Amino acid sequence: MDTDVRLVCAVVPDSFRELSEDPYSTFPTRSAIEQVQRRLEERAAEEDGATFGLVLVQPAGRSATFGMREPEAPGLVREHASAADLELLAFLEQDDRLALWKFAKAHDALLASARVTSFSTLDTYQAWVAEERSLTPFARANMVTVSPGLGGELRQRVKRGRDRHGALYVDGSVREVERERDEGFGERIYHLTDIAEPKLILHVAGGPLDVWVSGPEGTELVIASWDLVQTVAFWLGELIGPLHDRLATLVSSTPCVCIDVDVADRPFWFEGAEEAGSDAGDQIIVEGVTARLVLGSAMRHVAPGPDNAGERVLVARLLDAFDQLASGMGLEPLPAQRRDALVEQVAPLGLKKHLLLLPLQGNALLVDADGPRALRRRLTSPLHGSCWERIWSAASTSSSVRCPASCANSWPTRPSSTCWGRSASS
């Protein structure tokens, strides 16, 4: 889990032995915990460095009480939790992969100086979070009791953030969806909790009907088209609000629609290969409540641009797809003036709102440069020059750094105007 931390995880599920009608019965864990204790000690002694022993105990509808003696192996830090609590913490701490390790270290230090009574690791974790991710304020106490139920706030945060619920799918079924996290795609984007098809399917919420986005089928194509499908979902999320009244007219005919996105020239789009033959343009094929949108090569050429030009084309095609879905239900298309206004509102020319990741090959923004380019002149303008001076001042050290362009210059002195690398990435 880190360069000098090894994770050893032990899972202790309910054995379903000694079951009782008593609602307050407990899951006997003593023998299992003794085995786990010995195993963790053995694993910690096998290698140098720190070992994080994580014990997951998951009872089935009854309580579990267990304790572990002080570790004998140096560098062994242990923590226990239920499998359900681990899933919750994994959702909360996606930006810090060492969060549980940091908590375990702090918890271990507190246990060394005080007697701690806690009914749930999640309660203690919330106390750690509340004290700015520290248990130091309790260090002078000789006994600490953590209030039961303190971790309820974390459960509520996850419940609100994940927002797991059912949504009507185009095949007539109800699919369970949830937010994976706020990844910059907006809070309207939901993922399936059950994966039954070999393709990426996303749900766009917030409208009067359920809107779905799907990509091409096949393991390799799921990987290749992942960002494209996410991008289409993002722009549908941007359209949901401005297009609310339009979508409301579709509800009388269908509770859900789907945009099935693909590209005509997959090697050109996903691998950066040479464009194959002539471009047939973007195509929209409606089958029931699904509009299949096949993007041609033209958008691939403009998509890497920094000014939303490619995104405006995509938004226009999504509006066309909705128009064709509406036409199949006997409804009139959007007036041209309204359509143009929606494109301007959702994807105005200017700084990009969403970055579509494309291969390096064939990407006009990342091609090799033959020499100093406009970037150098812009960086040395009064505004950019001032920013550069502040960045350079903050980054300078006493040691020399060779120029990444492999020229004759040596920093920390400010590089000359000719020392700007050989590609945009440099």
Largest sheet: spatial strand order: 8-9-10-11-12-13-15-14
Rg for CA atoms: 28 Å
Average pLDDT figure? 82
Sum up the overall morphology in one term. elongated
Q: How many domains, as an integer?
A: 3
Enumerate the spans where pLDDT stays under 50 for 5 or more consecutive residues. Answer: 373-426
Q: Give the proportion of residues in helices.
A: 25-40%
| Total strand segments | 17
Largest sheet: 8 strands, mixed
Q: How much β-strand is present in the residues?
A: 15-25%
Q: Can you walk through the features of this model?
A:
- The protein has 426 residues and is an alpha/beta fold.
- The protein has 13 helices and 17 strands.
- It has an eight-stranded mixed β-sheet. A three-stranded parallel β-sheet has the order 1-3-5.
- Helix 6 crosses helix 10 (309-328) and helix 10 packs across helix 11 (336-346).
- The chain is elongated.
- The model is unreliable at 373-426 (pLDDT under 50).
